[in-house]
TrEMBL record:
Signal peptide: none annotated. PANTHER family: BSL5627 PROTEIN (PTHR34477:SF5), UPF0213 PROTEIN YHBQ (PTHR34477). It comes from the Bacteria. It comes from Abyssalbus ytuae. This is GIY-YIG nuclease family protein.
Amino acid sequence: MLYSYFVYIVTNQNKTTLYVGVTNNIQKRISQHYFDSEHVKKSFAGKYNCYYLVYYEGFEDINQAILREKEIKKWRREKKDKLISEFNPQWEFLNHQIF
């Protein structure tokens, strides 16, 4: 199934910082995080070099995607780690899967 919207989690190289976001174009958004990390460092993801995709969920409805993003953002780090580990046990960088 093709999805129109995605909730995603990116991390830095050492997997010490997580960023949760929502987008309608995951490839473009990851590229924006990468560019910001390498150049301007204006966003949270840019400042902490978070552009390595470790988790994503697809949605057809933007409202459902936004609700899920807000839900995950409220979680403690341990709960986010568990979500990622259930989806991606080795915490592999999944950027190549979306390009």
